[in-house]
Amino acid sequence: MQRLHNKSLRGILDRNMWLLNLILVAIFLFPIEPDPTPRKPVDAVSDLWLDMSLGPPLVEWFNSVARPTDIARLENVTQLDLLDQITAGRKLIVFKSIADAERLLPEIADKLDIIGYNLEHNPINPADEQADPVASVQRMRALADEYHLTLAFGPDHDFALSDGVAIAPYVDIFVLQVQRVQTQPDTVCDFVLPLIPQLREANPDLEISIQVRTEGNVIAIADLVESLKDDLDGVSILTSPNTVPVAEALVKELRSRTAVKSTAHNSCMSNF
pTM for the whole thing? Predict the structure, then answer.
């Protein structure tokens, strides 16, 4: 009788060990990944970093108002002489071809914090890079890693929609161009709001900005930014030599939109 009891007990233990081993194998093969920490939206528009395109008329002003997280953006490689004049914020130069980046980065990488890649359906962008956007961004990612730089990507509307989600894992900053429709909030919302969650799902660490330009009503532009602030990390601002006062006024307005003062109607959220 005792032998039968021992045999039964041994059978139970064997089954338990088999079950334990099965659980351990399952954990090894299919590990449970912790949920990523939810992104905390900024408290106010004033907390968003600013990414300003600069020309000579704005450099001195930018140096006087920029915060450490703000970005001084040079739109093309013909502006390299301005790099040494920028003394505040982070420095970014936009490349429209990988060949230019490969040629110039060995000489200027130590002066930069961010490299920008602007890919559009445009003759300025090489046809082969337009033909395979993901592979093109991967090449730029390799350059950014080689020189220990942040990579910002600013595609046109169509590339953002067709390839943005596939590209998001390879970039650090994603700029959504809305400047052409910035006076049409509904159009901006229809483009931006469905896309941003997809981009963040593809890359939870991604920082996202919308790009506006210094034309039109400053209050209306700031209202548009405020309506989207919970989904943004920054604001990219296109400037021109003829709109310097507008650029300065826009930055002043955005900086004034603190959590206490903000009262703008959230036009985007009213549509979703």
Answer: 0.84
pLDDT bucket at 27, cuts 50 / 70 / 90:
very low
For helices 185-202 and 157-167, the axis angle rounded to 10 degrees is: 20
Does residue 272 register a pLDDT over 50?
no
Q: Is residue 40 part of a domain?
A: no
In this structure, what CATH number is given to the domain that contains residue 213? Answer: 3.20.20.70
**Residues 166, 90: Cα–Cα separation, whole Å:** 27
Is 78's pLDDT higher than 70? yes
Residue 257 belongs to domain spanning: 45-271
Total Cβ atoms within 10 A of residue 167: 26
Paired tokens of 4: 């039968």
The two structure tokens encoding residue 264: 């703008």
pLDDT exceeds 60 at position 23: no
Burial class of 30 by CB neighbour count within 10 A (0 to 12, 13 to 18, 19+): exposed
Residues 6+ positions from 209 with CB-CB distance below 8 Å: 48, 49, 51, 173, 174, 175, 176, 232, 233, 234, 235, 236
Whether the predicted pLDDT of 159 surpasses 60: yes
Task: Give the integer Cα–Cα distance in Å for 124 and 119.
Answer: 9
